[in-house]
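Model: Ready when you are.
Researcher: Fold this.
Model:
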Amino acid sequence: MARELYCWRCDKVLPMLDDDEWARMGPVLSQAWSRIKRHCRQHRVGPYEAMQVAGRDAFDFYERLTGYRETSFEAIWHHQASRYGPPCALCGKPLRTPQAKLCAACGHPRALAPG
């Protein structure tokens, strides 16, 4: 089940997909992106307008997985929990990446395991 994490791009706590959920969501997003590009060409509209029509099934699927209605197609791409690092020891927000050496939110250095 999706878990709630702080998203530094969205600047709020949102449901993040686990790897199993992402394995199901990824193909839905890829197919929707192909339809969005085709819709843009065929109807001579911008990507935002095309997303609302051709990307609707991706929004619906994300909502079924998480219970949250996302309105940004791009946001779904980065709402994958494994893309983030562990929580900061000081502020508790997740590090931006698993390899991050300091917290981008508060600047606190990551506590590394001795060795």
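Researcher: Now this one.
Model:
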Amino acid sequence: MPTTTIDGHVIHVDDEGFMTEYTEWSEPLGKALAAQIGIEMSDEHWKAIRFLRTDFADQGETATLRRVSVLGGIPTKQLFVLFPQKPAKKMAYVAGLPKPHGCV
């Protein structure tokens, strides 16, 4: 598995740059990952990211946008505002999780 260094953290990533080791992630690293894709984290952003991380630990896969909206309580339109264009993919990236199934 390839590695990369982000904000002084050496992390394992896949060929698309998504983290592959759940335990290597931290909130400071999440903030650095968000900055790399032009997102400045707010409390609303963290609500989505924390839901994704908890849900991944419970379910074993990255939640879909619908799951984040329904179970996480964040309307889909708001997810597009927080993570423009490709919210599911961007949320997974910032959360240090695999790209959700169905994302291209």
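Researcher: Key takeaway?
Model: The radius of gyration is 13 Å.
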